[in-house]
Design goal:
With 93 residues, the chain is an alpha+beta fold. 52% of the residues lie in helices and 13% in strands. It has a 3-stranded antiparallel sheet with strand order 1-2-3, with no helix packed on it. Strand 2 and strand 3 form a beta hairpin. It is extended. It starts with a strand and ends in an 8-residue tail after the last helix.
């Protein structure tokens, strides 16, 4: 059995399952942002996982509005993440 803050995993003979109890969105969001910050300390602190996901959602909405191909959006995501991990993107810009 492995237990995270919001997850219980159990392995039985022939079975593998996880139990995910209800968690408030704010708590889960804060925990995900904290874990992201621990895994990527070189990214500016103002740029959280929630903000990155929100920006990706905006890009997807605009792509649908402009009738762009899915591959174009996928490449935009990849290039955006590369810029984030190089430290060239921050919340103000």
């Amino acid at each position: 059995i492995r237990r995270g803050k919001h997850r219980l995993e159990k392995h039985l003979l022939g079975y593998h399952f996880s139990l995910l109890p209800y968690t408030k969105k704010k708590e889960l969001k804060a925990e995900l942002n904290d874990v992201f910050r621990e895994q990527h300390p070189d990214i500016p602190p103002s740029l959280t996982l929630s903000k990155i996901r929100n920006l990706k959602r905006v890009v997807l909405d605009q792509a649908f509005r402009l009738d762009l191909e899915h591959s174009t959006v996928a490449l935009a995501y990849v290039y955006f993440e590369k810029l984030v991990f190089k430290g060239l993107v921050s919340k103000p810009n």
